[in-house]
From TrEMBL, chain A:
PROSITE patterns reported for this sequence: DNAJ_1, DNAJ_2
Higher taxonomy: Eukaryota, Viridiplantae, Streptophyta, Embryophyta, Tracheophyta
PANTHER family (alphabetical): CHAPERONE PROTEIN DNAJ 20 CHLOROPLASTIC, J DOMAIN-CONTAINING PROTEIN
A family per Pfam: DnaJ
Region (Disordered) residue spans: 166-194
Name of the gene encoding the protein in the UniProt record: ATJ20_3
Residues annotated as domain J: 62-129
CDD domains for the chain: DnaJ
Database matches in SUPFAM superfamilies: Chaperone J-domain (SSF46565)
Biased composition (Basic and acidic residues): 166-175
Any one cellular-component term (Gene Ontology): chloroplast
Protein name listed in UniProt: Chaperone protein dnaj 20, chloroplastic
UniProtKB/TrEMBL annotation, chain B:
Similarity annotation: Belongs to the heat shock protein 70 family.
Biological function: Probably plays a role in facilitating the assembly of multimeric protein complexes inside the ER.
UniProt key word Chloroplast: no
Entry GO MF terms: ATP binding; ATP-dependent protein folding chaperone
Protein name as it appears in the record: Heat shock 70 kDa protein 8
Keywords tagged on the record: ATP-binding, Glycoprotein, Nucleotide-binding, Stress response
Length: 194, 573
């Protein structure tokens, strides 16, 4: 296929400068980039320096940290934490002069919730955390990729949703009596002895 | 273990700021413009109140009659008889026509209405006209809607004794973003500022959230999460939503919508009673319009009666020797509309599937809208949701407008000392938004049922060596190919470095903000470049009427020269 006049770069005698794929690798994260852009672009007179720092902090915090729950948190606790934070950061209820900032926070909370409320993705995230890859922001990208990879095959999708459904059910069963196996055993023993 | 009720954590920095907001913010009113009926409600300081017009009606017919100089709408006007609405002078069903082109099947189905809907079938807006002094006077759905909204606004201002500017409007789930711009335009013409456009079932979900919160308070009970399925079917549209509610927060899990409604039931039955209807009415003469009106009224009455009777007599003399006289069985009506009911079933099933829920997971099933009185519709909803009874705490015709009024109060920053407004809706996108890539495929970037506000991005690359430019076509919908989705707009990115195909990294990012505004950012990422070409930021939609043409023309002009493909990831082939 030959490019017609439009969109064609004038052909020069020398070969085009080659850019190896590996040199493309250092990636610019667009959202954070544009955050800065909109921040400065909108020329908000207020100093946003502190906010920018706090974004960076948010980026480095784990999803559990973001939701303010322990790593052993149950699905119920995740849901509760999410709804509480939504009531604080959702643009509909946030103070009018901080909508932009709170919207960013809400999106992060939403992402943390989406990963942690899905047993399969939470499992992957936990494993990554154990390996020391606990940066929420890069982690998110990982799971996003994984999400879109799922779409290659409809069968795989269906199989996975069935699997996550099963896991969800078992998690829900656990969340009913939100304690560890050890705690349950201890309680049983206490009840038996009393 | 008792569950902890959700409470807003006291946060001195935020509450302190909220208190300093203006003392008397204007409370936005809620408006539900139905295809056939419409209503207005407002938070009156302690509860939601529906406003009544001068004739003491809470529900008003959605139509505008054109006569002589001043058009009159269903808010102030009172019809001597139903037939007056069918004389050719009245335009109704604007909600079915707004923002649609003349190739749309919904527009074609509207050609049987007793006013003029003319199509040229080329993808431009249809010609719509009302019969005034034996002449077809042209208008547009936006204009008709604006005239109607002006009346509504005047009525609300008289009732509330204050100017009304801010509104929350309910809309069908299946509306495209282009259609939303038409609604916004009509509101602007009527001097109204749209604070929120709320999919109808999500407004119902908010009312449900408030009711659940109140009953939790009364019983001193726990704020445990409840799942509700909301089925809303009016004259023009059918919507389904699934919400997870706890502590006054309604989180929309999934939405599904379609253009099927009471109007389809009516038209199918009219065709059944008079198979030659299209042919007889195609000329739109004054006599034909009168006959069409007679048939329409008789059919409508029959459908209403069939909600309580098993069979009804139909006796209508259309003149000119055409007479319809028969007993219509309920089963016959259901058979004639089999496809409509099947569509309802599919929507509910799809919504459950998208929410990753089984019927057993749903705590409450809510059914609202004019068609909720039809026994077959109730049976379908109950059988798919596997239950014996439906949620009974709502008036099916008022639920949406009440929810809109609640959202109006919440979005206006009003708080209630008794906590009745400690509410929040977390919305989701009803349709996927993406771009054209990999040929004429639609590649979603923000998927359907994604929580908003949201920001998502994806990388693409070129299809030709040394391709310097690329066209970004933005579409909305859930079909595989772009032709079957709604075009929202297009723009070109330039400055792609001269490298082999597949090498450049073209980033497309989509952002939906708090007020549901969609922005698309796109550009080429060149690592290490000192001054890379600037990114584009485009607010969507950018298209106007006749947009189907522009995409076709662009494809014809440029072929695949400015195309993009998705970036293949490692291990994916």
């Amino acid at each position: 296929m030959f490019c017609n006049s439009y969109g064609l770069i004038p052909v020069s005698s020398s070969p085009p400068p080659s850019i190896s794929p590996s040199s493309l690798h250092p990636r610019i994260y667009y959202p954070s980039n544009s955050q800065l852009r909109t921040k400065f672009g909108s020329l908000k007179a207020k100093s946003k320096l502190n906010d920018v720092v706090s974004y960076a902090e948010l980026d480095n915090r784990s999803f559990y940290h973001l939701l303010g729950i322990p790593e052993t948190g149950t699905l119920l606790e995740i849901k509760q934490a999410y709804k509480q934070l939504a009531r604080k950061y959702h643009p509909d209820v946030s103070p009018p002069d901080r909508v932009e900032e709170y919207t960013q926070r809400f999106i992060r909370v939403q992402e943390a919730y989406e990963i942690l409320s899905d047993p399969r993705m939470r499992d992957m995230y936990d494993k990554d955390m154990a390996k020391g890859l606990h940066f929420a922001f890069s982690a998110r990208r990982r799971y996003q990729n994984d999400e879109s990879m799922e779409e290659i095959g409809e069968w795989k999708n269906r199989w996975q949703s069935q699997l996550s459904e099963l896991k969800r059910r078992s998690t829900r069963k656990d969340s009913g009596n939100s304690m560890s196996w050890g705690a349950r055993m201890r309680r049983q023993r206490n009840e038996a002895s009393s | 273990m008792a569950e902890q009720a959700y409470t807003v954590a006291s946060d001195s920095e935020t509450t302190g700021e909220e208190k300093t907001s203006p003392a008397f913010p204007e409370i936005a009113i809620g408006i539900d413009i139905g295809t056939s009926q419409c209503s207005v409600a407002v938070w009156n300081g302690s509860q939601v109140e529906l406003l009544r017009n001068t004739r003491n009606r809470k529900l008003m017919r959605s139509y505008v009659t054109f006569k002589d100089e001043v058009p009159a709408g269903g808010v102030s006007d009172e019809l001597a008889h139903e037939y007056d609405m069918l004389s050719g002078a009245a335009i109704f069903n604007m909600k079915r026509l707004i923002g649609r082109v003349d190739t749309d099947p919904v527009v074609h189905a509207s050609k049987n209405l007793p006013f003029l809907v003319q199509t040229l079938d080329i993808g431009v807006r249809p010609f719509i006209a009302a019969l005034v002094n034996k002449m077809w006077r042209s208008t547009t759905p936006e204009e008709v809607l604006a005239i109607f909204l002006v009346e509504l606004r005047a009525m609300a201002e008289v009732k509330l004794r204050r100017p009304v500017r801010n509104v929350v409007l309910t809309i069908p789930v299946s509306f495209s973003r282009f259609q939303l711009t038409r609604i916004e335009r009509a509101c602007a013409m009527a001097g109204l500022h749209v604070l929120r456009l709320m999919p109808e079932p999500t407004a119902v979900a908010l009312l449900y959230a408030q009711q659940q919160q109140q009953s939790a308070h009364e019983n001193m009970g726990s704020g445990s999460e409840k799942i509700a399925l909301i089925f809303n079917m009016g004259a023009g549209y059918c919507d389904v939503a699934i919400t997870a509610t706890a502590g006054g927060v309604s989180q929309i899990k999934a939405l599904a919508g379609s253009t099927v409604g009471g109007e389809d039931l009516l038209q199918n039955l009219m065709h059944h009673l008079l198979p030659s209807m299209d042919h007889i009415f195609s000329s739109h003469g004054i006599e034909e319009i009168k006959r069409m009106g007679l048939l329409r009224v008789a059919t409508q009455d029959a459908i209403h009666q069939l909600s309580s009777e098993m069979s009804v007599p139909i006796d209508v003399d259309l003149g000119n020797g055409t007479k319809i006289s028969k007993f219509l069985e309920r089963a016959e009506f259901e058979e004639v509309n089999k496809e409509v009911f099947q569509k309802c079933e599919t929507l509910i099933k799809r919504c459950l599937c998208d929410a990753k829920l089984e019927a057993e997971d749903v705590h409450d099933v809510i059914i609202v809208g004019g068609c909720s009185y039809i026994p077959k519709v109730r049976n379908i909803v109950m059988s798919i949701c596997k239950r014996e009874e439906l949620y009974s705490g709502m008036n099916p015709l008022e639920a949406a407008v009440r929810g809109a009024a609640l959202e109006g109060a919440v979005a206006s920053g009003i708080s209630d000392p008794f906590g009745s407004l400690d509410l929040l809706t977390i919305q989701a996108t009803p349709l996927s938004i993406g771009i054209q890539a990999d040929g004429s495929n639609f590649v979603p970037i923000i998927h359907q049922n994604t929580t908003t506000p949201v920001r998502k991005e994806q990388n693409f690359t070129t299809v030709h060596d040394n391709q310097a430019e690329a066209l970004i076509f933005v579409y909305e919908g859930d079909e595989k190919t772009v032709e079957d989705n709604h075009l929202l707009g297009y723009f070109k990115i330039t400055g792609i470095p001269p490298v082999p195909k597949g090498v450049p990294e073209i980033n497309v990012c989509m952002d939906i903000d708090a007020s549901n505004v969609l922005r698309v950012f796109a550009g080429v990422i060149i690592p290490g470049a000192k001054c890379p070409p600037p990114f584009m930021e485009v607010r969507m939609p950018t298209v106007d009427d006749g947009h189907a043409w522009s995409a076709q023309t662009l494809h014809k002009t440029y072929g695949s020269t400015l195309d993009l493909v998705t970036v293949k990831k490692k291990g994916q082939h």
